[in-house]
Amino acid sequence: WFLSTSKAASSYFNTMFTWGQSDRPDWRSWQLGTAANPFIPAEELESARRDMPAAAFAQEFLGDAVSFSGAVFTNLEQAIIDAPLPEQYARCAQQRSWMTPEMEFFIGCDWAGAGRRAGGDFTTFVVMAKDGTICAIDRFKADFALQRVRLAGLVSRFRPAAVLAEENSIGAPMLSALRASGISVQGWTATNATKHKAVEALALGFEEGRVKIYDTENRAVLLAELMAFEATSLPNGMTRFAAPGGGHDDLVVACFLAYLASHRPRVGECAWSPI
After folding, report:
1. Maximal C-alpha separation, the chain
2. Once rounded to an integer, what is the mean pLDDT over residues 110-119?
3. What is the residue-averaged pLDDT of the chain?
4. Beta-strand pair 186-188/162-166
5. In terms of pLDDT, which residue wins out, 275 or 168?
6. In the chain, what are the helix, strand and coil shares in percent, each to the nearest 5?
7. Which residue stretches of 52-131 are H helix?
8. How far is CA 69 from CA 75, 82, 106, 201, 230, in A?
9. Residue 232 pairs with which residues in a beta bridge?
10. Lowest mean pLDDT segment, chosen from 66-75, 190-199, 211-220, 228-237
């Protein structure tokens, strides 16, 4: 017996599953979605269907295998580690004297408008260690004050070396309020050019195997957004990076901001220009 959930269409588990669907006499396979469980309310499934990207819902609740060969972010399967997050990545250690630079943490923040309106964007925070391990994925809808409280909680837990947040629109007053409360945060201005460079940096990180995603909360949603993220050629010759129509890319933005923050030179090292 091999019991599992579908993590990628090209995984070996799904290869074995196809054997059971073929004419091989020594293999049989069955697939049951979450709805087959009589102890899970139907309204809970419907709520998940509304809140999650379609690919994430298909994988987590329907048991469908999903392809991870996205047009922008490739080699995602190598980043997936089907094991719990190691304890040393779960929070900042109390004693820092023994810690290596690889255990420093960085937080990327993507804000959303206040409120809980259906179909609106999500506020997202991604915590990444210096070695590329994604340590926490936060995704929610709330008013501005609660967004700052949630970020303050992550800062207290991980004591990051840097927090990088979008500064456009509502980002500017959010950064001002955070700094006034004593939280050190750096601003990033989103333009087509700066987003292009940040996306390219994260894509290279995945391609070279420098990003690791353990089995943590909201991982399926992050992977679904990374899979769906697409590049569209514009009439002026530029490329637009975004989620497809009706989709979300909030976690993608928070992820590349965390990655960008982790690769900025330290004070005393070579100078850098904001991208």
Report:
1. 69
2. 66
3. 83
4. parallel
5. 168
6. 40, 15, 50
7. 54-60, 76-79
8. 7, 18, 27, 18, 12
9. 240
10. 66-75
